[in-house]
Amino acid sequence: MCGAEKFGGFTLHYSRTMSSCIVCKKTGNCRPVFDKGITGLSEVSKQRRDIIHEDISKQLADNFPIVVHEKCRKDYTCKSNIIKVLKEMDAEFH
Ligand SMILES: [Zn+2]
After folding, report:
1. How far apart are CA 31 and CA 27, in angstroms?
2. How far is the CA of 32 from the centre of ligand 1 (A)?
3. Which of 7, 12, 53, 59 fits as disulfide partner to 42, beta carbons 3.0 to 4.6 Å?
4. Gap between the Cα atoms of 31 and 5, Å rounded
5. pTM
6. Strand 66-68 relative to strand 31-33, pairing
7. Ligand 1 center to residue 52 CA distance, Å?
């Protein structure tokens, strides 16, 4: 399920995407996320009403691995952070 060889001509794109954190889009020190973690991030993204779940879907469709900084994942999926974001959105809406 991994390795650049299967992506052939897309190696350049693959390596760039591979090293970009799905949350902050920065490179370096990212960890791969697997099935359950990916589902969790997608769910959080939908709750937050951002486009990260769309990015995840795109990367999965292209067979790109999902990677994330451990800190980003923790901050992003933290319940109190999600509630804060939703409250801010509601405040803007009213
Ligand atoms: Zn990050």
Report:
1. 11
2. 12
3. 53
4. 20
5. 0.76
6. antiparallel
7. 12
